[in-house]
Each structure stands twice: as C-alpha cells, then as structure tokens.
Amino acid sequence: MEIQVGQFFDSFKDFKDLINQRESEINEKLVIGKSSHSVQQANSRLKGKFRYKDDLVYTNVTFRCVHEGNFISSGNAKQSTSLRNGCPVLVKLRADKVVNKLQVASVNLQHNHAMPDKKDGVYVSDRKLNTAEENDVTRLIDLGAPVRKIQAHISSSYALAACIPEYDLRQVT
C-alpha cells in the first residue's frame, strides 16, 4: 500500500501496521527519527479542554530509512561498516487537532539504493531465529558442533542468511 501526503490514521498502531506491511513486502527498514514529540508531552503543555488521543502516541514523528545519513569514520581504528549511504526516504506525521488523527505531512519513498533480499541477512532482524530454530541451534551448541557446521545447517534447513555471524549464534545461548 502506498503512503500519501494528507492521508489520515486513527492511531499510531494503524500507521505502524502499514509500515510493517511495507517492510515485509519489500524488505524496507524504517526507523523513528530523533525529532519526535509524544502526545503525553503535548497534553501536559495544553491548556483548555482539548487533548490529543493517547492512541496517537506522537504529535510529530519522522520515520527514516536505516540507510539515511552518511557514515563518517572515527579515525584509523578497526575497519567498521555502516548501512548509511544518504538515503532520502522519509515519512513525517503530525497530529491534526481538528480531527484528532495522525496525518502524513510529507513523504519521500524513493530509495537511493537497492533493497536487500531477506536471505542476504543484511539486517539483524533478517537473521533472527524463531523459537524452533533457536531450540535446534541450542541443541547443536550443547552437542559441541563447530560454528561453521551450525551456520551451514541453518542456511540449508531454514533458508536464512548463508552466513549468520558467530556473534549472532552466541546470543542464542
């Protein structure tokens, strides 16, 4: 489903459901930006009878692609990686006082990068194991199986990222 300027949402949950649907369809990862203001904050400053609905959660909120911003290395220490590549995707919502709903104030959904496939395991959430998979990995770890063998087993059995990092496996136990 497309997000359009002027579109209204009865609650933050309704908007978040739409975002989650987009994420599952195209493997898009949007995160809440730093400049958001909560309904609780706004209601504490308001005088008079009007109050924002608690279901709105935010009076102003910005969602950005995880690839937004530019990575700046902090010296010549260990080589580090970053998802940041200056992606301009952004969705701004604001609470409308007249109808007491969240409204899309601005939107740009044009990514400047290819969307990674879930099986590539670029995002941590794509490498997350469900309960059954976690139990299987725990059993293999308890049996003393080498990490490479566990990674190969996960890749072939569950069609997850071909190379789940060792530190992700350590979080299982």
UniProtKB/TrEMBL annotation:
It comes from the Eukaryota. One of its GO terms (molecular function) is hydrolase activity. The lineage of its organism: Eukaryota, Metazoa, Spiralia, Lophotrochozoa, Mollusca. The keyword Hydrolase applies. It comes from Elysia marginata. InterPro entries: Zinc_finger_SWIM, ZSWIM3_N. Residues 3-113 form the ZSWIM3 N-terminal domain. This is Inosine-uridine preferring nucleoside hydrolase-like isoform X3. Keywords: Hydrolase.
